[in-house]
Amino acid sequence: MLKSKISFFALLLLIISSVDSNRNLPSAAIFGSPLIFFFFFAAIFFLFPTALVSAELSAISARTGGIYHWVKLAFNDKLGMLAIWLQWMNAVTWYPTILSFLAGTGAYLFDPSLIYSKTYMTVAIMGIFWTLTLINLYGIRISTLFNEFCCFIGTIIPMLVLIVLGFIWNYNQKPIHISFSLPAIFPSLDNIAEWTALVAIITSFSGLELSGVHINSVPNAKKTFPKAIILACFIILFTMLCGSLAIASVLPQNEIHLAGGLMQVFSAFFTAFNLKSWIFVSSLVIVLGSLGNIINWILSPAKGLLQASESGYFPAFFCKLNRHGVASNILITQAILVSCFCILFLLLPSVNAFYWFLMTISTITYMIMYALMFISVIQLRRKKMTSSFQIPFKNFGLYSTCFLGLMGTLITIIVGFIPPPGIQIATPLKYASMIFIGTLLIISPVFLLIKFKGKALKKT
Q1: CATH 1.10.3330.10 assigned to 8-459
Q2: In the predicted model, what is the mean pLDDT of the chain?
Q3: Which of 204, 310, 322, 397 is the most buried (most CB within 10 A)?
């Protein structure tokens, strides 16, 4: 069976769509003026370190890539299994947030008030995810073509339109709900809740390493991957910052809806400019963009999990590939787990609470994986593993990059236990307890899987 190849442009769109999602804009915009500081803070302490480390790791091997392979190569297959489990469970808990954004945006095609209906949101979330899972069962060629179309039409174009409309809004001296003065931009150290913005913004920057599992489908991968990752990094920073500022400028902070905030601002723009007919069109293309964003996240972590399952961490049932070369049983199991997480939607008091709760658990889980990734690149340098791309300035560049990345992950984990302003879930202590228990429940099964493999090896 011939392997489908991914061009540089397709790879660039694949990376951008893994990270650059319209759904992240409202969750950053709710923090108002300080989001400017937090975006640059997150870029220095997370986005750029992640881009450089991902580029070096992806250039080590042209045959096998992804977080499982990298951590296994640096240390052992047990830590590799922990890393891919953290990435996969981050995705499983993340899916309901992007799906709720998608369902909230889709509500504008019918009735915007549906974003407040838990029944509609739950049914829409599960229906969309199962449909996209079925598309992924037909292999990477179909999913990549679908992703290219959706990313360009539904992510890049709407973001550029949003940014242009934001400039026009400011130029026409429409009401602005944030201040661009230095005192407003810098967050107060007295109000620690403001720093929870890092959870939303660093979440919006995660996923650069995700495309590493496709490295054997990329021609001249050792040179192509680093170029694509670094270029994508700058595109993501520009679009995410400007897009979030556009929403924060137009909508009052306490009126931004996390699942429907993007369509709220497009509605405000088009209503103000007497272009109401474009509300339907913008909703439709944003839905397409979100579909492309999800479809890559469905396949890539599952593909990484397959690498671990082939090493004996799962029963043979999960290693089964369908005729399109896809780990179909892993994808179906994943869809069942996501459906279970969607049931949480009915238990939490509001859509915003549900959205933030799962996003925070997802982010904390992912930060632990990133810590393993930063440590792994140091270990691989010590092992003198050759790579066609290395972080500049030799050891100084390597250690300073990884130090910044590790600091960023640690700070994000700490602030993740602080309830954000404007979202009422529980008391601060209860909120922190819920986050801790939720994170523990997500991580703990991997230790049983590692033990399961150990017992299986002893029997053989």
Answers
A1: no
A2: 81
A3: 204
